[in-house]
Sequence to fold (153 residues):
Amino acid sequence: MDKNFYMTRALELAHLAAKADEVPIGAIVVNSSTGEIIGEGYNLSEHSADATAHAEIIAMRKACEKLGQNRLRDMDLYVTLEPCTMCAAAISFMRIKNLYFGATDSKGGAVISGVRFYDAPTCHHKPTVESGILQEECSQILKSFFAAKRKKK
Fold:
């Protein structure tokens, strides 16, 4: 499976988030065996007045709904930014097989930055993790978004 292909789709979703004036992060859930995209999401925390409406959570909820189950075994998650602690925990609880992300997040990330959630002894499921997929593109959309926000102030 072409990781760049899937991350490009996640980036398209991040652009939709930016157009909606949301932090531009996109995520997709992909069936590890077939390559089919099962769920998609982008940040909607501002518009939904829901701090948990992160791209990863939305994509995983949609995938669970589509599959009629509460676990996502044998599924991959592609997300444009390193997941936060909340999302890292949800990824573990959902039993995601592989986690692929683009940009690292030194302030809020919880996978290879910050708390390193999957290294905790209380973490019961650790996905395989790969970072840096289309890292520059994933990082640039965030930098541009926040630069434009600062300009408006």
Observations:
- The chain has five helices and five strands.
- The longest strand covers residues 75-81.
- The helical segments are 3-19, 45-48, 55-67, 85-94, 135-152.
- The radius of gyration is 14 Å.
